[in-house]
Design brief:
Layout: H1 2-39, H2 48-52, E1 67-74, E2 81-82, E3 92-103, E4 106-115, E5 127-132, E6 146-151, E7 157-161
Antiparallel strand pairs: 1-3, 1-7, 2-3, 3-4, 5-6
Length: about 200
């Protein structure tokens, strides 16, 4: 019986290590993709001056514990609304679902949105948008909050990987118009994951 318990414990530890390795590899792949995009003058949001001296973005250390599985409460009958941006532009979104999860020992909720124009495109028909703010904003991360891209899940849970949090383009270039995270999506905790504040 004791040997069986030890074997089960070893299998659990091994499974957990494999899961963490996958989370780390996924985050590193995301970082590489971001750096490749920012280095490419055809796709980079950087100004010409900043692009000339760009080497890589700064990221928080990858933290597997900041990958959470959230329970979703869907809002099928939510009404379209105009989301505020850093300019006069007001894109139309709908509240898709409220995500509930535990992070840093506390229960949290975030609203997830669906862009009503993008959903008409085949490339973005399952795209979901998660803008948020947290206690690192203006210190080690961009003061205006960050975004996470998601896809419509098959069930009533969704994986939120904060290691994939990225800055709005307006953090790098004033010519962009960026959605402002709604106040309801302010997390009263530090999310030390994803892209850090940009140092011009």
């Amino acid at each position: 019986m004791k040997i069986k318990m030890i074997l089960l414990a070893m299998l659990f530890v091994s499974s957990l290590a494999c899961q963490n390795d996958k989370k780390i590899n996924d985050a590193l792949a995301f970082q590489k993709k971001m750096n490749d995009e920012f280095s490419n003058k055809l796709h980079s949001p950087l100004t010409e001056e900043d692009l000339a001296s760009f080497s890589k973005l700064d990221f928080f250390p990858v933290d597997p514990s900041l990958v959470v599985t959230a329970k979703l409460k869907f809002h099928e009958n939510s009404k379209p609304f105009k989301m505020a941006t850093t300019t006069d532009r007001q894109p139309i979104y709908k509240l898709y679902a409220t995500a509930s999860f535990t992070l840093n020992g506390k229960e949290h909720q975030l609203e997830i949105y669906q862009n009503q124009q993008l959903m008409l495109s085949m490339d973005y028909e399952d795209y979901l948008f998660l803008p948020f703010t947290d206690n690192t904003n203006g210190v080690s991360s961009y003061g205006g909050g960050r975004y996470i891209d998601l896809s419509i899940p098959e069930g009533d849970t969704i994986v939120i990987d904060f290691n994939r949090a990225y800055n709005p383009y307006c953090a790098y270039n004033a010519k962009y118009s960026c959605p402002i995270p709604p106040k309801v999506n302010d997390l009263d905790t530090e999310i030390k994951a994803g892209v850090m504040a940009y140092k011009h």
